[in-house]
Amino acid sequence: MTVPVVSIVGTSGSGKTTLVTKIIAELCSRGHRVATIKHDAHGFSIDHKGKDSWRHKQAGASSVAISSPAKFAVIKDVVSEWPPERIIETFLQDADIVITEGYKRGAFPKIEVVRAAHSKESVCGLDLRLLAYATNVKIKTDLPLFKLNDFKGLADFIDKKVIKTHHPQEVSLIVNGSAVTLKPFIANLLKDGISGMIKSLKGCSKADEIEVRIRKND
Questions:
Q1: 63 forms bridges with which residues in the sheet?
Q2: C-alpha span between 16 and 27 (Å, rounded)
Q3: pTM of structure
Q4: Which of 26, 49, 3, 12 has its CA nearest to residue 146?
Q5: Fewer CB under 10 Å: which end of the chain, C or N?
Q6: H helices within 104-178, ranges in order?
Q7: Measured distance CA(72)–CA(58) in Å, rounded
Q8: How do residues 15-51 score in pLDDT, each as one tens digit?
Q9: Helices 151-158 and 16-29: crossing angle, nearest 10°?
Q10: ∠ Cα 104 106 77 (to 5°)
Q11: For 22-52, b where at least 16 C-beta lie within 10 A, e where not — what string?
Q12: What is the three-class DSSP state of 18?
C-alpha cells in the first residue's frame, strides 16, 4: 500500500467507534492527516429523501456525485463490495494514515477492542497481523495491552509501529478491483517504462504521480 493502514476491530458494541474517534482526534492534533473507512456488512444509506441527489438516484442514476468548493461525495452502486485497498487507492491517497473500523479478516495490521460487557475472548487472537489489544479483560498474550480509554497511548503506538515504519510502494496495481502484490522487478519495470513514456509527453516532464486506467472493451 502507498498509505499506512491500521484496522480497529472487535465484536459489535465493544466500543470501536468511541475509541476510533478519540484516536483520530489525537493523531490530528499531532499534525497527521487521517482518513477512515467504516465497514458496514449490513448495508447503509447516506442520502436523504427529497434532496436533489436523492431524486437523481431515484430516477435511476447508478452514480451520483455532489461537489462543492470544499468537499465532494459520491454515491455509487456496485456489483460487489469494493475491497478497502481499492477505496484507499482511489480516494484516500493524500492521507498520512488510514484507520479502518472493522475488516477483522482484512490484510491490514490490527488493534482489537475487547470489552468485558460484550466479549471476554479475542476474535483475532490467531491473526499474525494483530498488533495489540485495547481491553478491560485479562488476556494471555505477548502483545501490548492498552486500557480502553488510553487513546493517547494507542496513538503513540500507531505513530511508532504503523506510520513511522511504513515504506510506501512506489507502484500500486489494482486489477478488477483487487490489489495485486508486485515483485520488485515488475514494480520497477512498470515504473520506469510508464514514467519514461509519460514524461516525454508535452507538459508531463515533471510528473511526480501518474495514474493509468485500462479497460478492455472486448
A1: 76
A2: 16
A3: 0.82
A4: 26
A5: C
A6: 151-158
A7: 20
A8: 999 999 999 999 999 999 999 999 988 888 888 899 9
A9: 60
A10: 100
A11: bbbebbeeeebebbbbeeeeeeeeebeeeee
A12: helix
